[in-house]
Amino acid sequence: TAGGKNIAPKNIEASMKDFSEGLVTEAMVIGDRRKFLSAVVTIDPDKAKAVPGAGSGPAHDDPAVIAAVQRAITRTNEEYAQVEHVRKFRILPRAFTMENGELTPTLKLKRKVAAQNWSAEIEAMYAE
User: Fold this and answer.
1) Distance of CA 21 to the CA centre of its chain
2) In 3-state terms, what secondary structure has residue 103?
3) Residue 116 and residue 19: Cα distance in Å, rounded?
4) Which letter, b or e, does each residue of 12-41 get, where b requires 16 or more Cβ atoms within 10 Å of its Cβ?
5) CA 81, CA 83: separation in Å to the nearest integer?
6) pLDDT by residue (tens digit) across 36-53?
7) What percent of the chain has pLDDT over 70?
8) Entry pTM
9) Which residue, 6, 34, 72, 99, could crosslink 19 as a Cys pair with Cβ 3.0–4.6 Å?
10) 3-state secondary structure the chain
11) How high is the pLDDT of residue 107?
């Protein structure tokens, strides 16, 4: 982070997925030379439809789905030190894919490519 703390994102990302009960399919924590941690997440469209109060519009913009992801992040933050808390997040409108270069053939996230592809969304979290 900008404060000089080295934080391993893998554990935080795994906790976000675990606490979301399958709603969050992928998570990428961002914090390199930033004041705080943020995350971009992808969601399971079927699980999003099952969220109580979810509407019929795009799941990534649905207030009920956003609240469900926020609850998972809040539970994740309870497990980690203050400096490791995810303060802001965005739900992406599509999943990370191999076709877009964001995943390896073994389905591991290519952080650099994903960060470039979603740079507008990431920068927006830090501009607010």
Assistant:
1) 14
2) strand
3) 27
4) bbebbbebbeebbebbbbbbeeeebbbbbb
5) 6
6) 999 999 999 999 999 999
7) 97
8) 0.91
9) 72
10) CCCCCCCCHHHHHHHHHHHCCCCEEEEEEECCCCCCEEEEEEECHHHHHCCCCCCCCCHHHCHHHHHHHHHHHHHHHHCCCHHHCEEEEEECCCCCCCCCCCECCCCCECHHHHHHHCHHHHHHHHHC
11) 92
Asked if residue 15 has pLDDT above 90, the reply is yes
pLDDT digits (tens, 9 = 90+) for 86-118: 999 999 999 999 999 999 999 999 999 999 999
Q: Are 8 and 78 in contact (CB under 8 A)?
A: no
Residue 22 has φ and ψ, to the nearest 5°, of: 95, -10
- For residue 50, what is the DSSP state? T
Report the alpha-carbon distance of residue 109 to residue 8 in Å, rounded.
14
- Residue among 12, 1, 10 nearest 76 (CA): 12
- Given its phi and psi angles, is residue 9 left (phi above 0), alpha (psi -120 to 50 degrees) or beta? alpha
